[in-house]
Specification:
single chain; mainly alpha
């Protein structure tokens, strides 16, 4: 055991991928309908794997670094729970209600433990091996879905879904598309497309992996996620043109802009302007406008609005189900930004969103360097767009991806795309300017790495 290096161990790699795969299979609708989120507990095998290796090998490399990641990730979740407990007590909620709301976050703690365990075992390969497990589960689910319609029918339905850009009538009339519709993993595949294209430069097969992720992303096509991917890629491309100092400033500016945007977004939803705009342009909301209008009766855009506590919206919609007051046949708000504001209140939402975007971005800049901060912000801008009309903020796999990717990228020693070597005479004026800027940036980056790792070692 002492001589085993887990990054190169086929046994450890295989076991980790197997645990993730088994947990991912819980997203297959047949299993999910019977067991709900219970299969995700199987991913705890990764935690056990890390603990066993640590106890037997005595290898404590990177433990201090990973402990800092753990504290940072947990602090965001703990803040939501503590604030909600205060609101629940003020509203005289029952113990059962409080326990139900708190238990919803328990999977987030397991999620973080799996991420930290993967980082301990595999460092920069943690994100890649997590992708392997999820992709394998997704592919098996597609194969199982195809068995219900036959290969020909599955291909026809997939083509129809793509050519209609995920039109609701096509999805509803396709048994195959409904069978393979796994919201969480589909959103994650978008994260991995971005990761492999922009932030995995040391991986020789990254374009192959990006292609697999793109195929799986398109198989479970989410229109809002497609828009988010375009925006995130534009952000990542623009950021890559900046020097390290400018990148640090840029990501911090964007983090504050996100905070301002979210408050503006909530205000236009409350006023009805958002749904009116989408309806005017004939954009299908699939009943979301009814939920938004109904929820608007329970909050105000004011510093005096204190919030209702985490999971209030879900519990509210559940109690309405099957009654004359039922809005639509779903029990999710399908708007995580709105949901968090309603549940945390004006100031609770402010503290949460400042913590999530501003604090975490600053943490990555100061602890991990500007490259890792850009990685963090790029994938979180992609997810932010999906939060606007969906409820995947605390999905298990989505949460895992946005944690494991920047952490793995921090460990990656290759953080800069190298320009193709050309004679200066063969370069255009733009390429000469870009080459000089990249050379200067690489020098600053090398110095930054030395400072970063020396600071980590002193702690």
């Amino acid at each position: 055991m002492n001589g085993i290096y887990t990054k190169n161990s086929k046994v450890y790699i295989g076991l980790y991928i197997f645990f993730i795969f088994c947990a991912a299979m819980g997203d297959w609708k047949v299993i999910n309908a019977a067991l709900g989120g219970l299969p995700k507990v199987l991913s705890a095998g990764a935690v056990g794997l890390a603990v066993i290796y640590m106890l037997w090998s005595g290898n404590f490399n990177n433990v201090k670094k990973l402990f800092h990641f753990f504290v940072m990730y947990v602090s965001i979740i703990a803040g939501i729970i503590l604030w909600s407990v205060i609101l629940w007590i003020l509203d005289f909620q029952t113990i059962g209600y409080i326990l139900k709301g708190s238990s919803k976050m328990s999977f987030q703690f397991l999620d973080i433990l799996v991420v930290i365990s993967a980082g301990y075992l595999f460092e920069e390969d943690a994100a890649k091996y997590t992708f392997f497990g999820l992709a394998a589960g997704n592919i098996v689910i597609i194969i199982l879905g195809a068995l219900t319609t036959g290969l020909g029918g599955a291909i026809r339905d997939m083509i129809a879904n793509l050519t209609s850009f995920g039109a609701s009538d096509v999805v509803e009339n396709s048994a195959f598309i409904r069978a393979i519709e796994i919201h969480d993993i589909t959103f994650v595949m978008g994260v991995y497309v971005i990761y492999f294209l922009f932030f995995c430069h040391g991986e020789k097969r990254r374009y192959l992996y990006a292609g697999i992720a793109l195929f799986l992303f398109m198989a479970g096509l989410k229109r809002i996620a497609f828009l988010g991917m375009i925006m995130a890629m534009a952000f990542g491309l623009f950021s890559s043109w900046l020097n390290p100092k400018a990148q640090s400033r840029w990501v911090m500016i964007v983090s504050f802009l996100v905070v301002a945007f979210c408050y503006y977004y909530i205000s236009i939803i409350h006023s009805g302007a958002f749904t009116a705009f989408l309806s005017e342009h004939e954009i299908e909301l699939m009943g979301r406008e009814k939920i938004y209008d109904f929820i608007s009766n329970f909050y105000t855009i004011s510093p005096s609005y204190r919030g209702k506590g985490y999971e209030f919206c879900v519990q509210l919609l559940k109690t309405m189900k099957g009654t004359k007051d039922q809005v639509v046949n779903i029990t999710a708000v399908h708007n995580d930004i709105l949901k968090m504001y309603v549940e945390l209140g004006f100031w609770g939402f402010f503290l949460w969103i400042m913590g999530y975007y501003v604090y975490q971005t600053h943490w990555f800049v100061t602890r991990c360097g500007e490259k890792t901060a850009v990685c963090f912000m790029t994938i979180n801008l992609y997810m932010l767009i999906s939060y606007m009309t969906d409820n995947n903020m605390f999905y298990y796999w989505s949460s895992m991806a946005i944690r494991v990717v920047p952490m793995a990228f921090f460990f990656d020693p290759v953080k800069e795309i190298q320009l193709k070597i050309k004679d200066e005479d063969e370069m255009t004026k733009f390429e000469r300017r870009l080459s000089k800027k990249h050379e200067k940036a690489r020098e600053q980056q090398r110095e930054g790495w030395l400072n970063e790792y020396s600071e980590w070692g002193e702690e």
